[in-house]
Amino acid sequence: MSANAAVAPGIRVLPEPSDLPEPLPEPALDALRLETVFGALSDPLRLTIVRKLLLESENFDHTCGWFGFDRPKSSLTHHFKALREAGVIRQRQYGLERRSHVRVADLNARFPGLLAMVASWTPQT
User: Fold this and answer.
1) Distance of CA 36 to CAs 9, 42, 65, 79, 103, Å?
2) Cβ neighbourhood burial of 121 (10 Å; 0-12, 13-18, 19+)
3) Which one-letter DSSP state was computed for residue 23?
4) From CA 80, how far away is CA 113, in angstroms rounded?
5) Neighbours of 57 (CB within 10 A)
6) Which end of the chain, N or C, is less packed with Cβ atoms under 10 Å?
7) pLDDT (tens digit per residue) in 22-69
């Protein structure tokens, strides 16, 4: 099954470039735990990060600056790390910057429908 096979409408899955750096440490597919993923997604900023990656990605992966959050870098680093350690996003180091994308195929395989719910969530304004 391709990465796009079970993707909900509106979710953007871009092709993986061939020359990517190795990902930073993350849980294996069979180690993903629903309660851990829910814990990471329970923070509105982290939920917004994942939703934006799902619906608005312009490239395969994105730097923290792409999101346009007015938050200290240390705060954003914490949130991205929480998402990566929960297995929601994959991060790679490109020189001095880390870029992220959602582990769509892995999450769809483990928790069908979860990303569709995240994509359909409406942030409070």
Assistant:
1) 25, 10, 26, 14, 15
2) middle
3) B
4) 22
5) 17
6) C
7) 999 999 999 999 999 999 999 999 999 999 999 998 889 998 889 989
